[in-house]
Design a protein that fits this description.
Layout lengths: L12 H5 L1 H5 L3 H6 L3 H11 L6 E7 L7 E6 L2 E4 L2 E4 H12 L3 E6 L3 H8 L11 H10 L7
């Protein structure tokens, strides 16, 4: 799957206001904008025998993370599957046309959600954890 900037899939005002409408998007848009953090944590948890990290993108100088993804070696996993992290960073930088910061994310999902004002799994219309597990399993990792 080709690398595409997360911002290309931003939710509409209607999708932001209506969880059912947001939930009914196809998987790639759903995990690009609105549930990327869920996908990243599930990816890390799917491979406990690998040193999977978590990273986030934010606009330079800002505190709020707008995209979260999993990392392994020089690879990144997000809504576009596994791709070289450099390609993911370049695609997002080109799309946003403003400086971005990449940050390492530590801690658990609940703490991240509280700090970044992201939805926790129980705040979605359906079960995003099961949906994310299915999505991760459809994208073979680079070491496979």
């Amino acid at each position: 799957m080709a690398v595409t900037a997360a911002g290309a899939f931003r939710r509409t005002p209607g999708e932001r206001a209506d969880q059912r409408l947001a939930w009914n998007r196809a998987d790639q848009p759903f995990f690009a904008a609105g549930a990327c953090h869920i996908l990243a944590w599930v990816c890390r948890d799917t491979y406990p025998d690998r040193p999977i990290g978590l990273a986030g993108l934010r606009f330079a100088g800002q505190r709020q993370v707008f995209h979260v993804y999993a990392t392994w070696a020089d690879w990144a996993f997000d809504h576009a599957g596994w791709n070289p992290e450099a390609d993911l960073l370049a695609a997002n930088q080109e799309f946003e046309r403003r400086p971005l910061d990449r940050i390492a994310i530590t801690g658990d999902l609940a703490t991240f959600c509280r700090a970044q004002h992201h939805r926790t799994p129980h705040q979605y219309f359906g079960d995003p954890l099961a949906r994310a597990r299915d999505y991760v399993n459809r994208h073979p990792p680079p070491w496979a």
